Amino acid sequence: MARGLPEKLNGAVLLISHDRAFLDNVTTRTVEISLGKAYDYKVPYSRYVVLRAERRAQQMA
Where are the domains positioned within the chain? Predict the structure, then answer.
């Protein structure tokens, strides 16, 4: 977990980083806000990237 943050946090954290390994290590959920809609992914960051690509491909079909 990130320095200074507890292992379990009862709340939300807005986290901005380009370090994908770091994001995978500290996230268990990603909420994407796109075109006025919120998409809730309860998975680590790298899995979110895959699921987002699949969702977008389905939307384009």
Answer: 1-61
